[in-house]
Design goal:
Strand 4, helix 9 and strand 5 form a beta-alpha-beta unit. The chain is built from eleven helices and six strands. The radius of gyration is 43 Å and the shape is elongated. A six-stranded mixed sheet has the order 2-1-3-6-4-5, with helices on both faces. About 2% of the residues have low confidence. Helix content is 45%, strand content 11%. The chain is an alpha/beta fold.
């Protein structure tokens, strides 16, 4: 029948094909251009229509798969946020200073922004707490001396005088002098933790943080640690140990520019006071866990 219609009215089939293609191209149609061509093709049998439909569906699937792969590749090529990437540092031998392994450091602890104002606040807070506050002076009521009037009030032709323990008298009291008191100030705990993170980040950024595999010494002699110090070129060094080390403490107690502390007592003032900070792997993990944001 279709061949007869095309023979009698050849323009009718062409017009029908154009209408179907336009409808398929519109946004209100559920047909695709390939499906429209299959429907309006005259003389197409059932098998060829099914094969063409399958081929069109496979083409659409391939296009969708290609689009998904392209999106995945684009996401993989996106630059990684440097503030989320971990830091790397060498783990060195304590005696020879030779690199032995790599360690990953948390950027929030060892790569924090350098804030001088936070360091200043923490240092002032620590130094306030270090003040003994035992200063004391005696006022006019506390110094020893007579309580009588120094001279008569009238009749001698001179200025009026009273107590001999007055501040203007020799041996008199001190006006408004210091008294024993507590000089410690307050600082929020979050600011204290932030100051420690900034101090560690400053040492790491200046290449003044040395991470070692262990802090063991063969003996408690000072010359052993002094030889290590001279070999590495450490003028002023703070050693942060994960536990009490008797040999290390006894070997460094006579050295003026060397201080030893445990990881629980590491503070900002000690970190900034010394040029180089040496700590073992366990101390690094403890500080990361303690200062994790």
């Amino acid at each position: 029948m279709a061949s007869l219609v095309s023979f009698l009215r050849p323009g009718l089939v062409t017009q029908r094909s154009a209408v179907l293609k336009a409808f398929a191209a519109s946004r209100f149609s559920t047909l695709t251009p390939s499906r429209a061509e299959i429907i309006d093709t005259p003389g197409a049998n059932g098998s060829s229509s099914v094969a063409s439909t399958n081929h069109a569906n496979n083409s659409e699937d391939n296009q969708a798969r290609t689009k998904v792969q392209a999106q995945a590749q684009a996401q993989a090529q996106e630059p990684v946020n440097p503030f989320l990437a971990p830091l790397q540092a060498w783990i060195r031998d304590f005696k020879s200073n030779e690199p032995k392994d790599l360690i990953h450091l948390q950027r929030t602890v060892f790569g924090a922004p350098l804030r001088r104002d936070i360091l200043h606040r923490v240092v002032v807070w620590q130094r306030d707490a270090m003040r003994q506050g035992t200063h004391s002076t005696k006022g006019r009521s506390e110094v020893s001396g007579t309580t009588r009037k120094a001279a008569p009030q009238k009749g001698r032709g001179a200025a009026r005088v009273g107590s001999l323990r007055a501040p203007q008298r020799r041996g008199g009291g001190v006006p408004f002098g210091p008294k024993p008191r507590d000089h410690s100030s307050e600082l929020p705990r979050k600011v204290q933790a932030m100051g420690l993170r900034v101090a560690l980040s400053t040492k790491f950024a200046q290449d003044q943080l040395v991470i070692v595999d262990g802090l063991e010494l063969d003996s408690h002699k000072t010359r052993e640690f002094e030889a290590i110090q001279k070999r590495h070129g450490w003028d002023s060094v703070l050693v942060v140990a994960s536990r009490e080390n008797e040999n290390l403490w006894r070997a460094t107690r006579n050295l003026q520019q060397v201080d030893v502390t445990i990881m629980q007592e590491a503070d900002v003032l000690r970190l900034l006071k010394h040029q180089v900070v040496v700590m073992d792997r366990q101390s690094v993990r403890y500080l990361e866990k303690k200062l994790k944001v």
